[in-house]
Amino acid sequence: MNNTAQKWTRESAQKLYDQPFMELLYQAQTVHRTHFDPNRVQMSRLLSIKTGGCAEDCSYCSQSARNGANLPASKLIEVQRVLSEAKKARDAGATRYCMGAAWREPKERDMDALVAMIQGVQDLGMESCMTLGMLDNSQVIKLKQAGLDYYNHNIDTSERYYPEVITTRTFADRIDTLNRVREAGIKVCSGGILGMGEEKSDRIDMLITLANLPEAPDSVPINMLMPQADTPLADAEPIEPFDFVRVIALARIMMPTSHVRLSAGRTDMSDEMQAMCFFAGANSVFVGDTLLTAENPESSEDMALFNKLGILPMEAECKAKVEAAE
Ligand code: SAM
Ligand code: DTB
Ligand code: SF4
Predict the structure, then answer these.
(1) What pTM, to 2 d.p., does this model score?
(2) CATH for 21-325?
(3) Which pLDDT tens digit goes with each residue over 38-86?
């Protein structure tokens, strides 16, 4: 349980954020050590199960049909293909399999295949995660009954900045889906993107919204914008690395028992920046050379970095359960 007894205000969160860098990092690492082994990082693998042609207008995304990126739209891929990819990911060390679809929301006709994917991933002894856009109550219940462990649905930025980035849905729509997912008993994965031209206060406000949810998300992905050609954010000013690390540290302090995921954008980070993020409390990454459509570090590069830092993979809870039952 990630019950957030403390309700964060802008004042209390900003006071933490504005501390000297070393104080902030020391505090974040101290919090981190009270809840986690600082040398373990959870490893998830992503697969795009339906790519491109999305009806939403997210300014950062190559998959929006409304942006100029013109990524060809594919259909939902076959269950067997998903499961053979999931098996490869498991054999390469991933403990959670995350399936993403470029949808505003799933259609009724897709539900049976989604259920089969969840069950297949579970049978492989991995945790399952899906990110499919908005969900209604009956869809949430079907996914829960199939055994879905996590649902990813990012708030992306602050409520103030949200309409500058997306106009085809509201911040409140996002929170509604998050509440439905949590109430159905599926673990929540929600975070955002840094480097979209937002202010420091937007980054802090995004974390306040997440930490002040009725229950803080179990996973908090912090993405660094990967600028995509022919999208409105193709030329966005990159975020200063120390500012990025500060947000990771703040997320760790404000959501002490959540997994903070160093998500998209690692190909543009030095080993030293990633190490600083782990020190600041990040304890989850996506592994494998592709995210949904964009690049991620090669496995060999990640293994070399983890070996240099003495980082070991974190076991999945459900995998441990499967092994104990055998
Ligand atoms: N369509 C679903 C949705 O939007 O919820 C699921 C897939 S969507 C690609 C998942 C998340 O990936 C987005 O919410 C966003 O935070 C992140 N993302 C997408 N494009 C990105 C980019 N170019 N750089 C960094 N993060 C990105
Ligand atoms: C999240 O916060 N980041 C992942 C996952 N959730 C679904 C997606 C990153 C996408 C990066 C751009 C791409 O691969 O197209
Ligand atoms: Fe569609 Fe998701 Fe991309 Fe937005 S982020 S355009 S909803 S795939």
Answers:
(1) 0.95
(2) 3.20.20.70
(3) 999 999 999 999 999 999 999 999 999 998 877 889 999 999 999 999 9
- Ligand nearest to C-alpha 133: 1
Question: What's the number of CA atoms in the CB half-sphere (13 Å) around residue 315?
Answer: 8
**Residue 165: per-residue pLDDT:** 98
User: Dihedral through CA 130, CA 118, CA 298, CA 53, nearest 10?
Assistant: -50
Instruction: Calculate how far, in angstroms, residue 53's C-alpha sits from the geometric centre of ligand 3.
Output: 9
Q: Mutation test of ligand 3: which of 60, 64, 66, 225 has the most ligand atoms closer than 8 Å to its C-beta?
A: 64
Q: What is the dihedral of CA 102, 302, 226, 14, to 10 degrees?
A: 110
Name the residue of 64, 129, 131, 210 whose CB sits within 8 Å of the most ligand 1 atoms, as the mutation to test its pocket: 131
Determine which residue's CA is closest to atom 5 belonging to ligand 1: 133
CA distance 290 to 192: 19
Average pLDDT of the chain? 94
Please list the active-site residues: 54, 58, 61, 98, 129, 189, 261
Q: What is the CA angle 41-43-45, rounded to 5?
A: 165
pLDDT value of position 325: 40
Domain range list for the chain? 21-325
**Ligand 2 near 192 CB (within 6 A):** no
pLDDT value, residue 71: 83
The single residue listed with the structure tokens 């911040």 is 171
d(CA 220, CA 123): 26
Give, using CA atoms, the residue closest to atom 6 of ligand 3: 64
Ligand 1 in contact with 264 (CB < 6 A)? yes
The CA 324 to ligand 2 mean position distance, Å, reads 32
Cα–ligand 2 centroid distance for 291 (angstroms)? 6
H-only helix segments in the chain: 10-17, 21-35, 79-91, 111-123, 137-146, 162-165, 171-183, 200-211, 241-254, 271-279, 299-309, 317-325
